[in-house]
Each structure stands twice: as structure tokens, then as C-alpha cells.
Design goal:
Blueprint (H helix, E strand, L loop, with lengths): L23 E13 L1 H8 L8 H14 L1 H4 L10 E9 L8 E13 L4 H19 L7 E11 L6 E2 L4 E4 L6 E2 L4 E7 L2 E6 L6 E5 L18 E4 L2 E7 L5 E7 L1 E2 L4 E6 L1
Antiparallel strand pairs: 1-3, 1-4, 2-3, 4-5, 6-15, 7-14, 8-9, 8-13, 9-10, 11-12, 11-15, 12-13
Helix pairs in contact: 2-4
Length: 264
């Protein structure tokens, strides 16, 4: 089938020969979501799971899985990764009767001839399965869902963004967000502006549309989710006047044309 690189001229599965490709910086970020009982999340975050520190085990399992992706997926190349990382963010139920959630984000980078999308997706999946394994004795109904690629860069095809969840942060420089920083998102005529210091600080960047197409002014619809802003992760909360307030929970640099995504 035309366009499927893992099929040879006879239509049979085949490993792609990447020897002729240029070495470029490759990066991929994937995400997934776990749904679980609020009591299960409370046990995880309080250290009440008998098998040990669930998030620490899941983080390490995800990183190890990314490094061994070529052994798990038949036609993937074994890659000498430069870096892999996994983050797990617990989110309380949005309302009475709702499930709790854990958002998992996996990132992988290398300088190489082929992309690392599968490594990032594998990291997220195995991290989620590790949470399930450690918690199944108290919550067999825990569900791993919505695993997908959020962003990838490098290679001949260039940059990819999940258009359903992500937009580009325009006008961002080399600003860095630190843990404990607070960012405000304000609706302007040209879109949404991000500023620190109660909305009075310098502009960190702008987006012309809210990720996913919803209206950020209706902040009551989005609290309890997280925002990816460049390398940083922020927890979304409603602020006075309905404007979203974002509290940095993982520090990171913004950078030119950084990703802005809402997950949860």
C-alpha cells in the first residue's frame, strides 16, 4: 500500500532501511490517562499501596520500556536514546461521582535517523500498566485510555501536533517557569495571553485559539486539568472573573513556538 513504509514491494511486512537518512535531532511527547476510583488515587498519593511507591515504579518502568521498544515492537529499530522521561500527574475528581484521573506524559529524544514516537507511546503505556499492576488488588476497574502522540519534531516530515488538544504558543522567548510560579490566561481581541504576577507581568506568549476549540473564559469547565506549556506542566484552576489560573507543578523552558496543550 502506497505510503506505508513498513511494507515491501510484495506487500509483506519489512523493517525500514534508514541508513540513507540524515541524522537529525528527534523528539516525541506522548500522553495517556488513567481513570480510577478516588479512594485508589488517595491510596497512591498517601503511600498506602502495599507494593510501594506507585509513581516511582511507573516512572522507571516507562523509561525502561522506552529504551527497549525495539525489542517489544517487531519492526521498530533498537535506538540509542539520548534521553527519556515520564511524568505522572494525579487529578482529583471534577465533581461528585466522577472518577479520579492520572495523566501520564512520556518524552523521548535522540540524534538519529528515525523518529522516537513509538518509544514515547511505549513509555506511557507501560507506565500506565505498571500503575494498574500495583493497584489491581484494590481497583480492578482502573482503566488506561486515550494513549496518543501529542507532539513530534525532526526528520523529513518535520513537526506534528495533536490538533485536537494542542496549539502553538506564539511570541514566546526563552522564558522559564519555575515550580510555584503562577500564570494567568487572559482573553484579548487577538486570542489568549499568558502572563505571570497576577496577570500584570510581561507577556509569556499568546495563542489564537484555546486548545481543543473550547472557550477558556468558561473556566468552570476546565479546572482540575493540566496544561502543557513548552517544557512546563501547570495545573488549571478557576480564578476571579472566570479567567484560568495556572500553577506550575513541573518547571521548564517555554521557547520559540512552544506547545500549548490541555490534558486530563
Amino acid at each position: 500500500m502506497e505510503g506505508l513504509s513498513h511494507l515491501d514491494s510484495r506487500g509483506q511486512a519489512a523493517m525500514v532501511d534508514v541508513a540513507g537518512k540524515a541524522v537529525t535531532r528527534r523528539y516525541a511527547r506522548a500522553w495517556g490517562r488513567l481513570r480510577l476510583q478516588p479512594e485508589t488515587l488517595a491510596a497512591i498519593t498517601s503511600g498506602g499501596v502495599a507494593k510501594g511507591d506507585v509513581f516511582a515504579a511507573a516512572r522507571l518502568a516507562g523509561i525502561m520500556a522506552a529504551k527497549r521498544c525495539g525489542e517489544l515492537i517487531p519492526l521498530c529499530h533498537p535506538l540509542p536514546l539520548d534521553w527519556a522521561g515520564v511524568e505522572l500527574v494525579p487529578l482529583a475528581p471534577a465533581g461528585d461521582g466522577d472518577a479520579a484521573r492520572i495523566v501520564i506524559i512520556g518524552e523521548v529524544g535522540l540524534a538519529g535517523r528515525t523518529g522516537v514516537e513509538m518509544e514515547a507511546l511505549t513509555a506511557v503505556t507501560v507506565a500506565g500498566l505498571t500503575v494498574y499492576d500495583m493497584c489491581k488488588a484494590i481497583d480492578r476497574g482502573l482503566i488506561l485510555e486515550t494513549v496518543g502522540l501529542l507532539e513530534k519534531t525532526g526528520g523529513r516530515s518535520g513537526r506534528y501536533l495533536d490538533a485536537q488538544r494542542a496549539v502553538v504558543l506564539e511570541g514566546a522567548g526563552e522564558a522559564r517557569l519555575e515550580a510555584g510560579d503562577r500564570v494567568f490566561c487572559r482573553l484579548q481581541a487577538s486570542g489568549f495571553e499568558f502572563r505571570k504576577q497576577d496577570g500584570q507581568g510581561p507577556v509569556l506568549g499568546r495563542i489564537s485559539a484555546w486548545p481543543g476549540g473550547s472557550d477558556a473564559a468558561g473556566a468552570e469547565q476546565i479546572p482540575g486539568r493540566i496544561m502543557v506549556l513548552g517544557e512546563a506542566l501547570l495545573l488549571i484552576s478557576p480564578a476571579a472573573g472566570g479567567e484560568p489560573r495556572l500553577d506550575v507543578i513541573k518547571p521548564g523552558r517555554l521557547g520559540r513556538l512552544a506547545l500549548c496543550a490541555v490534558l486530563g
